[in-house]
Specification:
about 130 residues; mainly alpha
Length: about 130
């Protein structure tokens, strides 16, 4: 199993869900079921770009822990989007927790990779999630 690829896919999928929430929040619309389905599919298929660098600089044990964290946040966010009984403020909290998990994971990658992210996709996720 390509754990590094799953980490990159997990970051990307979680980023998609966070961005979908913010795009729809202003119009007070729900995140589309098709967006949720695509994010779930994306997270389950390892991405190739940037994974070689990750697997070289980050131990598999840490990559597995990162992937587990991303997966937990994705599942919590999907539940928050699908649960009609959850309040908007509760949903916003889950989105912010997911955004923070993205930033934390990207920060860890930067830490082990000489303070750089290995792909443009990850750099864009850093920027779009206001990581610092």
């Amino acid at each position: 199993m390509d754990v590094a690829g799953l980490v990159v896919a997990g970051i990307s999928a979680l980023g998609t869900l966070v961005q979908a929430y913010y795009a729809r929040r202003d119009d007070q619309r729900q995140v589309k079921a098709s967006t949720i389905k695509k994010a779930k599919a994306r997270a389950s298929v390892p991405l190739k770009t940037g994974t070689k660098v990750l697997s070289q600089v980050i131990d598999d044990t840490l990559l597995k822990a990162m992937n587990a964290t991303l997966s937990r946040h994705q599942q919590a966010l999907v539940r928050a989007f699908e649960d009609q009984n959850i309040t908007e403020s509760q949903r916003a909290i889950k989105v912010e927790e997911a955004r923070a998990a993205i930033c934390q994971t990207l920060q860890q990658i930067k830490h082990f990779n000489n303070q750089t992210l290995p792909t443009r996709r990850l750099e864009k996720l850093w920027e779009s999630n206001r990581c610092h």
